[in-house]
Specification:
Elements (H helix, E strand, L loop, with lengths): L3 E6 L10 H14 L4 E6 L19 H10 L2 E9 L2 E2 L1 H10 L18 E8 L4 H14 L9 E5 L16 H23 L5
Parallel strand pairs: 1-2, 1-3, 3-5, 5-6
Antiparallel strand pairs: 3-4
Helix pairs in contact: 1-5
Organism: Aeromicrobium erythreum
Pfam families: FMN_red (PF03358)
Protein name: Flavodoxin
């Protein structure tokens, strides 16, 4: 079976509004596709994801639909913009909802997200990418996801300027090559874990 990927775009911009996070999420999916990974992206802000730490918060909560895609995927990509040096509130909401998976287990007793691989992307025209990446790594690891070597990329624009990642004529080589390395390492790790799962 081919590997699958789910990219969670944590932009604050709804609908079809131009989004640097959407661009990087698609670049990740394109890089994964080069390794025969079939992927899809979800713009989380367009869905009614309720606050809470349960798998289903009821009353119109749309997280369960995202969760089904997440459980079916082998590679999970989280891309967030930077605001006041922090990840977006949407990215924080995703982490809050993933907290519910700590109490969900598979038949072998392991957390339900064991064996899935996580990638991270951060965009913004202010500092904060390293801290955001570290925070995402820690939270995703806590939930049972595995981080590959060099499993993230980022782009920071010039301080106090208004040029965004999706305004650039072309993606800087350093950002894109790091993204492609992260994708290749994620696929390698996901294939290893599919053949040799973590011990029960």
């Amino acid at each position: 079976m081919p590997l699958t990927a789910l990219a969670l775009n944590c932009t604050l911009k709804p609908g079809d509004a131009p989004s640097s996070s959407a661009l990087m999420a698609q670049q990740y999916l394109d890089a994964l596709a080069e390794h025969d990974v079939v992927g899809t992206a979800v713009r989380v802000v367009d869905l009614d994801v309720k606050p809470g730490v349960e798998t289903d918060m009821g009353d119109g909560d749309e997280w369960p639909a995202i969760r089904r895609q997440l459980l079916d995927a082998d590679v999970i990509v989280v891309v967030t913009p930077t605001w006041v040096g922090q990840m977006s509130s949407v990215a924080n909401r995703v982490l809050e909802r993933l907290d519910a998976e700590l109490s969900e287990t598979r038949d072998d007793g392991n957390p339900i997200l064991y064996g899935k691989v996580a990638l991270v992307g951060v965009v913004g025209n202010e500092d904060g990418a390293h801290k955001i990446t570290a925070d995402l790594y820690q939270a995703l690891d806590d939930c049972g996801l595995t981080i590959p070597a060099q499993g993230g990329t980022y782009w920071n624009g010039e301080a106090m300027h208004t040029v965004d990642y999706n305004d650039l004529d072309e993606t800087p080589e350093a950002t894109l090559s790091t993204l492609r390395t992260a994708a290749a390492n994620a696929v390698h790790l996901a294939r290893l874990l599919s053949r040799e799962p973590y011990p029960a």
